[in-house]
Design goal:
four-stranded antiparallel beta sheet; 15 strands; 3 domains; single chain; four-stranded parallel beta sheet; 498 residues
Amino acid sequence: MALCIYNSLTHRKEPFEPQEPGRVGMYVCGVTVYDECHVGHARSAIVFDVIYRYLSSRGLRVTYVRNFTDIDDKILDRARREARPWDEIARTYMMAFRRDMGALGILPPTLEPMATEHIPDMIGMIRALEQKGLAYAVDGNVYFSVSKFPGYGKLSRRDRDQMMAGARVELDERKRDPLDFALWKRSQPGEPAWESPWGHGRPGWHIECSCMSQKYLGHTLDIHGGGLDLVFPHHENEIAQSEALTGKPFARFWIHNGPLTRERVKMSKSLGNILSIREALERYHPEELRLFFLMAHYRKPLDFTEAGMAEAQAALARLYTTLERMERLGIPEQQEEPLMEFLDPNALQGWPEPLRGFRQRFQEAMDDDFNTPRALAGLFELNRALNQWLDDPSFSSGPRLRELLFAARACYGLARHCLGILHLSPGEFQAQKEGLLLGLLGLDRERIEFLIQKRAQARGERNFSEADRIRDDLAARGIQLLDSPQGTSWKIKPGALS
């Protein structure tokens, strides 16, 4: 089956073939580094990480470029409020972004260019637009003339009134058209500035991506991606300035991930309902977050809810529980790459579904516009069947057990390689999950063991009221003590955090 991708430009699924056989150029709009990233950013990052992983798994050599906007009004505003240098603000949140991406298991892009490193390139592009009569200068500012590009609006499919309502129209009587957008901005006193033919200033937002994407990927990109909120005006403006200058299509495929709400309410600082990635990772395991996002199709709106996260937590726990069962039966060591020879249907003759056809169904799902919910459905179907087989003595103690374990590991490995989940051993996952839960309960293993020793000492001294007090205090904090002839162990009570 050919890979088909929904193209936001044409509003339909289309077979995807790169311009250069075997090589893909993909550009995704990155973040403006003025604050901590939130779970909406996490969704977008995970979506394009999976696309990057899957394209690579098909044998394509992907050059993945994701930029940083490190000069912007929001950065300057924060610098003024905190009385800190603007570039220190940018560095601080660039580091925070990389920390969050690493925690989420996001693969580093091929290139991560910063806007401030490419200002001479942007100046060159703006001058070329001006020389072709596509841009005009006014008092140190340079604007793109939207009327010079007849295709303006073809991505968002908005008419002029809708574009006027949806754009952040800068009120400037010197502009020839309210929809004209800034390519270069004259710097105000105290702001960072770069020398240019129009005086000291800095680039507008939209020119950054056009310049950096084309510098590294050429005039026509295979894929341009980002959140749905970027379609207008940002991506529309990128198309206009790029295609007006080069006369070539700017991107062959446009991919946009759907919006994220929280408990059915748009996340907003004014409402105080923004959940940062850092805060989310204090409560949830990174793979639980990944699985939550991948259980919905990337183009669909998604609501971030406690119930949805509980479902993802339970689903991931089921997968790791099955891996633990396999480990006890002698599962082979985890491989970095899927054991593809064990996914070949010809090598699985005689095995029942869903093992025999897993690879084909997984690839068919992912080839259908990266349909991760369908791919995961096949994984969970296999997981249920595998537990049934392991419950069957004819499999769990039969001569084909090792073959079963190798084939099953290959299936889980394919999901790990493409979806970025199941990277840990069951023991590592349980230890990380336990540490996360204890942190939420305000405890750690050392403290619990210390209290167990104090309780044992109290019981030895026949101070049963003190021993009971320690037990009840731990129970109230979500820790259940289990006494046996071998000593006292403990576990986190089910529902301790509810």
